[in-house]
Amino acid sequence: MDSKTIIRIQTVTKRFGPAVAVRNVSLDLAEGEFFCLLGPSGCGKSTLMRMIAGFEEPDEGRIELDGADLVGTPPERRPLNMMFQSYALFPHMTVSGNIAYGLRRGGLDKAEQAARLAEMIRIARLDGFETRYPAQLSGGQRQRVALARALARRPRVLLLDEPLGALDRSLRESTQAELKELQARLGTTFVMVTHDQDEAMSLADRIGIMQAGSLIQAGSPREVYERPASRFVAGFIGAANLIEGTIIRREPVFARIALADGTEIEARAETGEPGDAVAVMVRPEHLSLAAGDVPGPNRLAATVTATAFLGDGVSIRARLASGQDIRVLAHGGAPEPLRGEAITLAFAADAARVVT
Amino acid sequence: MSAARLSPLNVTALALGLAFLYGPILLVVVFSFNASRLATVWAGFSTGAYRGLLDNAALMSALWTSLRIALVSACVATVLGTLAALALVRGGRFLGRGMFTGLLYVPLVLPEVVTGLSLLLLFVALDLGRGTVTVAIAHVTLAMSFVTLVVQARLIGFDRSLEEAARDLGASPLQAFFGVTLPIIAPAVGAGFLLAFTLSLDDLVLASFASGPGSTTLPMYVFGQARRGVTPEINAVSSLLIAAVALTLVTVTLLMKRRAGASLAR
Amino acid sequence: MSGVVHPPGEGGKRRAPSKRRWGSRLVLLAPALWLALFVLVPLLIVVRMSVSESVRARPPYRPQLPASLDPELWREALGELTLDNYRDLAASSLYGEALLTSLGLAFVATAIILVSGYGIALAVARAPQNWRMILLAAVVLPFWTSFLVRVYAWIGILKSDGWLNQAFLALGLISAPLAILNTNAAVVIGLVYAYLPFMILPLHASLEKQDPALLEAAADLGASPLRRFWTVTVPLSLPGIVAGSLLCFIPMVGEFVVPELLGGTETLMLGRVLWSEFFSNANWPLASAIAVVLLAILILPIVALRESERRRQEAAS
């Protein structure tokens, strides 16, 4: 990446008693990017973020900001700020009091503090609410106070812990757009923790996927969607069919895989040797219904178990001969099969990937 | 949903319960204005009993002793109890935690006569002259456990990320504690102080064991008189105590309500 | 710590957490010292005093524990320890009677408080939302007024020319004044009055949490009001019942003020006996032995109470 590295996480491990919360994670964050740490709850993403913020210290490894080691620096002396999942708004302070809290310790003179406060109130569209207390605000307003408070000190990096988790669905979508727009305008590096893959996909420049304390893959939304590094990533990002099989032949780009029932298919492969048990990932939208009697490569026989009309297409659940369930997203216009009907599914070898 | 349906049985229970709880107290207040020396036979309205109080030197000295002890012991108990609550909620696991919580629990459940006796034996063993100081020590010991209970409950409900947010925004640990934590747990600390003050002002048994000559507290004085029977003076003193407590509680409630209205109320 | 890039000169790395730990140690220190000196040590002194000779009514009490660690001196001193005080307690029917009276009156009073407190707590919990806090405050408010005054008030009510007898006579319910004051009945009344709020608070806490939909579900499934009460309301409030009963029972057993002011000379309760052994007879070792007995009786209920509170705290957090 061309842009400058702002945060460098090197072989960081964090244990809580016998449990390893974060395991040997290394990651570089570029200045100005919007990075999402994505993973199921308990995967260590929040712990990793809290180590960047300074609320936890790594047991091993180091965390650098602009080339200087942060480990051992207390949170109040780190030039980054955090927006908390619960917002953590001080209930005994007004909106202004909350936003100005960090400014009062920022080495700014009174006039600068007032100007910055006014700017934040404006950015967060909180005009007229300055003297309200958090309990008197709506969920969306509280969220904006928390954001403004964390941004007021102009942090080098803004850490966001599930910032939209407490909002209801409709508000969340509009807030996502605002957040993305704000990040682009300010140019501040955002690091966000979320368990919602749709949110990560729509906001992030890059996504880091964590599982059981380890960072499995980091890359752009397109990369992690199209080239998942593991079955876990394939299943976690978007819907995926994982068809089990064994590699029988390996070519530079493609591999030939035999399924349990003898069917042979081809898929893109970056790893794996003949004899390896692997899974072939095919996204539901890349499967199509083929006329049963037309032979061709990458054909799977299946029986329809359920269908649902979605407006712009039809979702089909079918069962392969091996007993494995498979999802198909057929686009509008395709004939809708009946339950119990035997169908043949087809996919392009280019759209299928071998994952281990 | 929670549309309340108070049955006639519920209403009766409430009415009888409140009458039972307040009746005796009201009788004491009413008969403190009795003109007759026979305290339980009404003989017309009089404020004579109250006027007599100011001239009662023994009573006034007991009152003064009690107030001083209550103030000092409540202050110390509030600090120690709040520290203990912080250690319990924030300290995580530490050596002797079980022992610590156990000892905190002891004054809450031990019969007062046992606590009193044990403290007295300690004072004797230490050769500590008995007086207001020893009574105050006894009251701190009793009250700090109550303060811990009250503050602990509030601290457990306290969202730690508030403190972290303060740290994140540039506050040192101490600044975060005094600027964020303390103001938010202040109602509990205040309630703990009031509880400690009331406990001290009310205690008879510990004070009887721990006090020496010249350190008679108000409850000790009242107890001595009450043993001899009901008098308008004791009714009057009791009424004043009731009034003082009621006034304090009303003031505190109003103050907290005003703050709560402005800030808390999720 | 295997194969990790660990640049030298990172001494500061572990300083922050350990400094934090020192802060919490300091917070702990003051209350811990206070508790050790004014709770733990006094209890040990009581136990030690209870096995001292009661011949001499004034200190120093034998045996004196040696100041040095010389095992010979210690063996000698320990050999002088005596169980005489406990033997005295067991030998005299007075103390056994006091023990039974204490437990009996505390039990009866707890039972009465449980029944009446349940009615009140239930009514408060079922009251409209905006009334609930006010009613609860009204029920608890007397708890803040002086315990002594509240007990004292009953002297005026119960004595032979007291308000109760005046009222009963005026109503023609009785022809001669009832002798209630200075009886066990008066003690029970006083105990009930003084400890009622201790029961209502935990009961209310567990009753208020109950979802009214549970009762509706029970009704929907065909349960009568009484059946609903016994099969839904009561079992769910069991933690409150246990906590409230223990909160009342434990201090009542050692109660001094109530039997002293309202009881007769025959109302012997352990707290009162301890008091008189100490203040009137100046028999400190015997008083200490009574204290140890009181502790031994109460240790089970105390542990049970602590357990129930721990469970409630865990459920809350």
UniProtKB/TrEMBL annotation, chain A:
<dbReference type="GO" id="GO:0043190">
    <property type="term" value="C:ATP-binding cassette (ABC) transporter complex"/>
</dbReference>
<dbReference type="InterPro" id="IPR050093">
    <property type="entry name" value="ABC_SmlMolc_Importer"/>
</dbReference>
<dbReference type="GO" id="GO:0015847">
    <property type="term" value="P:putrescine transport"/>
</dbReference>
<dbReference type="InterPro" id="IPR017871">
    <property type="entry name" value="ABC_transporter-like_CS"/>
</dbReference>
<dbReference type="InterPro" id="IPR008995">
    <property type="entry name" value="Mo/tungstate-bd_C_term_dom"/>
</dbReference>
<dbReference type="Pfam" id="PF08402">
    <property type="entry name" value="TOBE_2"/>
</dbReference>
<dbReference type="GO" id="GO:0022857">
    <property type="term" value="F:transmembrane transporter activity"/>
</dbReference>
<dbReference type="InterPro" id="IPR027417">
    <property type="entry name" value="P-loop_NTPase"/>
</dbReference>
<keyword id="KW-0813">Transport</keyword>
<dbReference type="InterPro" id="IPR013611">
    <property type="entry name" value="Transp-assoc_OB_typ2"/>
</dbReference>
<dbReference type="Pfam" id="PF00005">
    <property type="entry name" value="ABC_tran"/>
</dbReference>
<dbReference type="GO" id="GO:0016887">
    <property type="term" value="F:ATP hydrolysis activity"/>
</dbReference>
<comment type="similarity">
    <text>Belongs to the ABC transporter superfamily.</text>
</comment>
<protein>
    <submittedName>
        <fullName>Putrescine transport system ATP-binding protein</fullName>
    </submittedName>
</protein>
<dbReference type="InterPro" id="IPR003439">
    <property type="entry name" value="ABC_transporter-like_ATP-bd"/>
</dbReference>
From TrEMBL, chain B:
<dbReference type="InterPro" id="IPR000515">
    <property type="entry name" value="MetI-like"/>
</dbReference>
<dbReference type="InterPro" id="IPR051789">
    <property type="entry name" value="Bact_Polyamine_Transport"/>
</dbReference>
<comment type="similarity">
    <text>Belongs to the binding-protein-dependent transport system permease family. CysTW subfamily.</text>
</comment>
<keyword id="KW-1133">Transmembrane helix</keyword>
<keyword id="KW-1003">Cell membrane</keyword>
<keyword id="KW-0472">Membrane</keyword>
<feature type="transmembrane region" description="Helical">
    <location>
        <begin position="69"/>
        <end position="91"/>
    </location>
</feature>
<feature type="transmembrane region" description="Helical">
    <location>
        <begin position="132"/>
        <end position="155"/>
    </location>
</feature>
<feature type="transmembrane region" description="Helical">
    <location>
        <begin position="176"/>
        <end position="199"/>
    </location>
</feature>
<dbReference type="GO" id="GO:0055085">
    <property type="term" value="P:transmembrane transport"/>
</dbReference>
<keyword id="KW-0812">Transmembrane</keyword>
<feature type="transmembrane region" description="Helical">
    <location>
        <begin position="103"/>
        <end position="126"/>
    </location>
</feature>
<dbReference type="GO" id="GO:0005886">
    <property type="term" value="C:plasma membrane"/>
</dbReference>
<dbReference type="Pfam" id="PF00528">
    <property type="entry name" value="BPD_transp_1"/>
</dbReference>
<protein>
    <submittedName>
        <fullName>Putrescine transport system permease protein</fullName>
    </submittedName>
</protein>
TrEMBL record, chain C:
<keyword id="KW-0812">Transmembrane</keyword>
<keyword id="KW-1003">Cell membrane</keyword>
<protein>
    <submittedName>
        <fullName>Putrescine transport system permease protein</fullName>
    </submittedName>
</protein>
<feature type="transmembrane region" description="Helical">
    <location>
        <begin position="133"/>
        <end position="155"/>
    </location>
</feature>
<feature type="transmembrane region" description="Helical">
    <location>
        <begin position="167"/>
        <end position="196"/>
    </location>
</feature>
<feature type="transmembrane region" description="Helical">
    <location>
        <begin position="229"/>
        <end position="253"/>
    </location>
</feature>
<dbReference type="GO" id="GO:0005886">
    <property type="term" value="C:plasma membrane"/>
</dbReference>
<keyword id="KW-0813">Transport</keyword>
<dbReference type="InterPro" id="IPR035906">
    <property type="entry name" value="MetI-like_sf"/>
</dbReference>
<feature type="transmembrane region" description="Helical">
    <location>
        <begin position="26"/>
        <end position="47"/>
    </location>
</feature>
<dbReference type="Pfam" id="PF00528">
    <property type="entry name" value="BPD_transp_1"/>
</dbReference>
<dbReference type="InterPro" id="IPR000515">
    <property type="entry name" value="MetI-like"/>
</dbReference>
<feature type="transmembrane region" description="Helical">
    <location>
        <begin position="284"/>
        <end position="305"/>
    </location>
</feature>
<keyword id="KW-0472">Membrane</keyword>
<feature type="transmembrane region" description="Helical">
    <location>
        <begin position="98"/>
        <end position="121"/>
    </location>
</feature>
